Amino acid sequence: MKIIDKIALVLIIIGAINWGLIGLFKFDLVAAIFGQMSVLSRIVYSLVGISGLWGIKLLFDD
Question: In this structure, are residues 21 and 27 in contact, taking their beta carbons and an 8 Å threshold?
Fold first, then answer.
């Protein structure tokens, strides 16, 4: 597995944990750490979204 694939996977896991916390406890961990829709939180959300798209590629790799 390439390093970029591992980074994408870690970000996908972070996003999944964050969504789980939102769904179960109405607690947004990214917003709690970086601020509600601050520049940093938007960067994290964007990276998680891009990683999710990259994860589609991982489904079809051998």
Answer: yes
